[in-house]
Amino acid sequence: MKYTCYGHSCFAVEIKGKRILFDPFITHNELAKKVDIHAITADYIFVSHGHEDHTADLVELAKRTNATVVSNFEIVTWAGKQGIEKLHPMNTGGKWKFDFGTVKCVVAQHSSSLPDGTYGGNPMGFVFMTEEGNFYYSGDTALTMDMEQIPTIAALDFAVLPIGDNFTMGIEDAIAAAELIECDKIIGVHYDTFGYVKIDTKEAVQQFEDAGLDLLLPEIGSTIEI
């Protein structure tokens, strides 16, 4: 499975020949200036919640790539009003079998509003279950005991968790989350983009290592094999 980092909480995963993009926020991210958004392709775009740092490039990318946008009912409804035609609404607790595998929507403890200030519905995380591997993207979230349910849904090969603190989990809570979801390979997101979420990445990696966990922090624009 290939994982491509586009900065902040935007990344793509390739599964069974399908390219799945998450939380597109690139052109407004100073750290992602080298990323050519016009070169990005996608078959699906999953959106965890409505905040601008997860949706800023959604409309442009969805229209250009003709990707199917998957999110909660409110965000999908809003996306349709922006002229996006391929849409798949979901909500917390639901699952759906796509052509690349099955996705279950799970709880995220955060807030959600759309760029125009309208209600963005409940934030969500996603558990992907595929022939090439299983993974969990928590979206922006606090540490929550709901995470104990994740291992009952799927045995994870890796998880994508926020580590920047202030708006989401920080390092300590992300380590606790890794233990709850029973996953020792974590890809960190939602850090360094703004002053509020800047962290010491070397210290973060060491803290995860001390806990017996592997924290991956891919460079923006890079692709890694998982």
UniProtKB/TrEMBL annotation:
Pfam family, one: Lactamase_B_3
Lineage top rank: taxon: Bacteria
Gene3D superfamilies per the UniProt record, alphabetical: Ribonuclease Z/Hydroxyacylglutathione hydrolase-like
Metallo-beta-lactamase domain segment(s): 7-190
SUPFAM superfamilies: Metallo-hydrolase/oxidoreductase
SMART domains attached to this UniProt entry: Lactamase_B (SM00849)
InterPro entries referenced in this protein's UniProt entry, alphabetically: Metallo-B-lactamas, RibonucZ/Hydroxyglut_hydro, UPF0173_UPF0282_UlaG_hydrolase
Record protein name field: L-ascorbate metabolism protein UlaG (Beta-lactamase superfamily)
